[in-house]
Design a protein that fits this description.
alpha/beta, TIM Barrel, Arc Repressor Mutant, subunit A, 2 domains, nine-stranded mixed β-sheet, three-stranded antiparallel β-sheet, 14 helices, 14 strands, about 40% helix, about 20% strand
Length: about 375
């Protein structure tokens, strides 16, 4: 099986923290639609197996018109065989959700929505410069559920300076009352070239407090564990049967095709990424050229990626798998480092391998980097 990801590089406004590739020049959406349809045609041989996940991300996919959305979907269906039980996800902002729009998506085959809630607290939404209100967030969930889509994922951002512990618990309780079966919870990160970075640099707002974020992470983990949601990836929680199949396939190393500006693709042997510039993307495809860079993955790069991803996931990593896929040197290297982290009670040994202890999960990426195979 394989996946397809379509990056929709447009937003109504720029959130202060966002460093994804997007443009607020929505007048170019039609040009984008024509370009991505052409890219689908040019990339028809990239994947030669059934597609079991289809994901429209962004940016803001809910800005696409019904005509534009269906044009892209119809082209994908004409080129690639979709699995009968394909997971078809669309990311959406609450302020774009209408009953008519959800009906359009359902008719095209959409069966899962990922909603950028971020918070139900008005002051937090204003601080992030979100386009929607708390009322619109409530209404969006109600509309989607009324239209018969129960497979909903909600994004939350925690660790912002003005979000108190009580605010965070209130957000979690609201989502629990709505019985939303999947949550993606992200610590606020400060990325260069964002408005947030500039405001902190010029001391207009306070910097991120790591202790505040760590405490919020613990609150989320404890609360969601208490209502029966599994913590299957560092930032992701789900009720049984509602894991994100698309993201899980990424973490398992399943091949995928990325379409649109800045989108990444992976075919087990190499990784490629499209140019992160809308106009260059348009002009390249007008000339029937694919605007991407390519990296052939070395053995040590594959190993490092495996460690980074597996330590973020509930199942952890397997020394047997490392031995079979990467060889005895990588096996011994991993075993020695694992023993050090077990002594520190940051790793736990399981029947199949090693996974992070509860106290270590907030520091997953840093621990993974200690396992990396560094080539001189």
């Amino acid at each position: 099986m394989a996946g397809i990801y379509i990056h929709i590089p447009f937003c109504k406004k720029a959130c202060h923290y966002c460093n994804f590739h997007f443009s607020t020049q929505t007048k170019y959406i039609d040009a984008f639609t024509n370009s991505v349809v052409k890219e689908i045609e040019l990339q028809k041989n990239y994947i030669n197996q059934p597609i079991d996940t289809l994901y429209f991300g962004g940016g803001t996919p809910s800005l696409l018109s019904e005509v534009g959305f269906n044009k892209i979907v119809d082209k994908i269906k004409a080129i690639y065989p979709l699995h009968p039980n394909v997971e078809f996800t669309v990311e959406a902002n609450p302020d774009d959700i209408t009953a008519m729009l959800v009906k359009t998506w359902k008719k095209a085959g959409v069966n899962r929505l990922s909603m950028g809630i971020q918070s139900f607290q008005p002051h937090a939404l204003e601080w992030m410069n979100r386009a929607h209100t708390a009322l619109q967030a409530h209404q969006a969930i109600q509309i989607v559920q009324a239209e018969g889509i129960d497979n909903i994922s909600a994004d939350l951002i925690y660790g912002t300076p003005h979000l108190t512990d009580e605010d965070l618990l209130a957000d979690l309780e609201i989502l629990n009352r709505y019985q939303v079966p999947h949550l993606s919870c992200y610590a606020l990160t400060v990325e260069e070239k964002t408005a947030l970075y500039k405001m902190i640099e010029t001391k207009k707002i306070a910097p991120v407090n790591a202790q505040h974020q760590a405490r919020h992470f613990e609150i989320i983990v404890d609360y969601l564990d208490g209502i029966g949601m599994e913590h299957y990836e560092i930032s992701n929680f789900s009720k049984p049967g509602f894991r994100s199949k698309h993201n899980s396939n990424y973490w398992k190393g399943v091949p995928y095709l990325g379409l649109g500006p800045s989108a990444h693709s992976y075919n087990l042997q190499s990784r490629q990424w499209n140019v992160a510039n809308n106009q260059l993307y348009f002009t390249s495809l007008e000339k029937n050229e694919l605007p991407f860079e390519l990296e052939t993955l070395s053995l040590h790069t594959k190993f490092n990626e495996y460690m980074m991803v597996s330590l973020r996931c509930q199942e952890g990593f397997s020394l047997q798998y490392i031995d079979e896929q990467f060889g005895s040197s990588f096996h011994q290297h991993s075993k020695e480092i694992a023993e050090k982290f077990i002594t520190k009670k940051l790793l736990v040994k399981t029947e199949s391998g090693y996974t992070l202890s509860k106290s270590a999960k907030f520091f997953a990426d840093g621990i993974a980097s200690d396992f990396f195979w560094i080539v001189p």
